[in-house]
Specification:
By secondary structure, the chain is mainly α. About 70% of the residues lie in helices and about 0% in strands.
């Protein structure tokens, strides 16, 4: 069974860190104290903690970009299917194999 984005810990942990950093009070002193306290508790330097936030941001941005690409690909396939059906009527999905052999929408779905 495919994982949902919500179930994907890598994405959600990165998202959580990004949201925490984005919603930090606009107080550099408080942020600096928090970063130093976290660094101390993790046996890291403040630079390493900041690096973790940067890495989390990279993971989160990559996952959002991948989701956008998937959405665009799905939209393109659905648009092509609708066009093919409007041109060919019920021929789409009526063959024994589920579709006309030259259907461009099915080629998109199958990655041809």
């Amino acid at each position: 069974m495919a994982k949902t984005l919500w179930d994907n810990n890598e994405i959600q942990f990165a998202r959580l860190l990004c949201e925490l950093a984005a919603n930090w009070e606009d107080d550099t002193w408080t942020r600096s104290l928090t970063i130093r306290a976290v660094a101390r508790s993790m046996d890291l330097t403040p630079d390493h903690v900041n690096d973790l936030f940067d890495r989390a941001n990279d993971v989160w941005e990559r996952s959002k970009m991948a989701q956008r690409k998937l959405t665009r690909a799905t939209d393109a396939a659905q648009t092509t299917q609708a066009w093919w059906k409007s041109v060919n009527g019920d021929e789409h999905m009526s063959s024994p194999n589920g579709c006309h052999p030259d259907c461009p929408a099915c080629e998109i779905e199958e990655g041809k």
